[in-house]
Structures are given as structure tokens and as C-alpha cells.
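Worked example 3 (structure in, sequence out).
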């Protein structure tokens, strides 16, 4: 039986830093049967961090992307979809494809969320407002993002039941690799001075096709601590070390 208490003990043994900032990516289904489900997982993560720690998770809402970007509806419907989508609301807009644990954190009292309508992050704890304060529309995973804030705060990254293909910090490494950046048009319904408006913007093209490979390389270099948490493998790493290693790796391998 897996409980909040047993999960917190596993996370402490793994090396989660009390009082630190932790960017977590979690699959509830991989953890096994947890008493209390996703709420217990969130509480266990917060127990391991302690009262001075801050928990961060991606809380993305892809449903608000421009239909021309998603290519999920016929072109003749795009204008109607843009008109019909509800405006992004950090306190209410649900996550999409982020999993039950991220959605539990998003709805936990005291959680704050960044302002990007597609690639937001949710945070809970003393440094939460600092983490989510800036999130530029045109720079969702670079220097204008919560990922960079976690980096400034010397945060850790936790992969709990997921692989490096879900490791959002590798997008920050992409942004810092020095490689040319292509952009793609996107847009979202936002509240501008209290009025719903469709806002168009350009954003960087990101590519996670080689994230598993660079993650394996980083682990082989000794950058990842691993152990069983619940019924799954957990991987913990320092975000600064990960981003530096991956940025250099991208510069070498993607440019060739």
C-alpha cells in the first residue's frame, strides 16, 4: 500500500531538498495504487519539500491554441473556433494532457499559475509567485518563462514515472543552446483590460524528439539520482546542471 507518508519518505531518500524549489513531472498511473490518489501525491511532494519549499508543475492548456496551429479542425472552421474559445483564466482554465497530479496542484488552495495561455506552470509555496510572475507569450520556455525562474532559484527537476521526453527543462536548454530559433504563428483568447480578445503572436518552434537521448547522456555522466518511489522509477536532478549539459549537447548534435 502506497500512502502520502511512504511517498514522502521515498522522495526524501531520493534527495528532494527541504526548502527548495522542485519542478515535478508525475504520472499517477505509474505510481501504483496510492491511498488518496493525486491529492495524496501532491501532499507527499509538499511534505518532502517542507513548509519553506515550493512545488512547481507544468499546467499547460493546449485547447486554447490557435486551430491553425493545432490543425485539428477544418480550415473553414478556424475563425469560428477562435471566436468561441473561452478566454484564458489562470484560476479556472483546466490543464490538458498534464495528468491528474498536475490538475490537483492547479486546483489546490494557495496555488498560483503563470499567465501564458498554452504553456503555463502552477506553483505552490513561498517562492510560487516569484516562479510564475513572468511568462512571455513569445518566449514560453526561455528566459521569459517560469523555467528560467526555477533556474535562478537553483531548483531541482523530478521525473516520477515519466521519462525525459516529458522534461520541460530541456526546452530551456534548447533556448540556451545558441542554435538558430525558428518561430511559428500561434494565438489565444486573452482578457485584455477585462475584455476578451483574440491575441496573435509568434513563438519558438520546440523539438523534443531527442530529449530521451540527451537525458540518457546526462544520466550516464552522473547527473541523475534514481530510486523507486511508490511502484515506479523516480529520477531527480539539479536543473542548472541539466540545462548546461543539454544546451551543450544540443549545440553539438543538432548542428551536425
Amino acid at each position: 500500500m502506497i500512502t502520502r507518508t511512504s511517498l514522502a519518505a521515498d522522495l526524501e531518500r531520493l534527495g528532494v531538498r527541504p526548502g527548495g524549489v522542485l519542478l515535478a513531472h508525475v504520472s499517477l498511473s505509474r505510481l501504483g495504487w496510492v491511498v488518496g490518489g493525486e491529492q495524496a501525491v501532491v501532499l507527499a511532494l509538499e511534505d518532502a519539500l517542507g513548509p519553506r519549499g515550493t512545488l512547481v508543475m507544468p499546467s499547460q492548456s493546449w485547447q486554447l491554441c490557435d486551430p491553425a496551429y493545432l490543425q485539428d479542425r477544418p480550415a473553414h472552421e478556424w475563425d469560428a473556433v477562435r471566436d468561441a474559445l473561452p478566454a484564458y483564466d489562470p484560476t479556472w482554465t483546466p490543464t490538458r494532457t498534464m495528468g491528474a497530479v498536475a490538475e490537483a496542484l492547479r486546483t489546490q488552495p494557495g496555488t498560483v499559475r503563470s499567465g501564458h495561455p498554452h504553456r503555463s506552470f502552477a506553483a505552490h509555496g513561498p517562492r510560487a509567485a516569484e516562479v510564475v510572475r513572468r511568462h512571455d507569450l513569445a518566449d514560453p520556455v526561455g528566459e521569459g518563462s517560469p523555467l528560467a525562474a526555477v533556474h535562478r532559484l537553483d531548483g531541482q527537476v523530478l521525473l516520477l514515472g515519466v521519462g525525459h521526453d516529458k522534461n520541460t527543462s530541456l526546452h530551456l536548454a534548447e533556448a540556451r543552446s545558441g542554435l538558430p530559433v525558428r518561430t511559428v504563428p500561434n494565438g489565444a483568447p486573452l482578457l485584455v483590460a477585462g475584455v476578451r480578445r483574440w491575441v496573435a503572436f509568434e513563438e519558438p518552434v520546440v523539438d523534443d524528439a531527442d530529449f530521451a537521448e540527451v537525458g540518457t547522456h546526462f544520466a550516464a555522466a552522473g547527473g541523475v539520482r534514481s530510486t523507486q518511489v511508490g511502484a515506479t522509477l523516480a529520477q531527480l536532478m539539479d536543473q542548472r546542471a541539466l540545462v548546461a549539459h543539454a544546451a551543450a549537447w544540443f549545440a553539438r548534435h543538432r548542428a551536425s
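Notes: The beta strands are 21-26, 54-58, 112-113, 121-124, 156-160, 183-192, 195-204, 225-229, 232-238. DSSP finds ten helices and nine strands in the chain.
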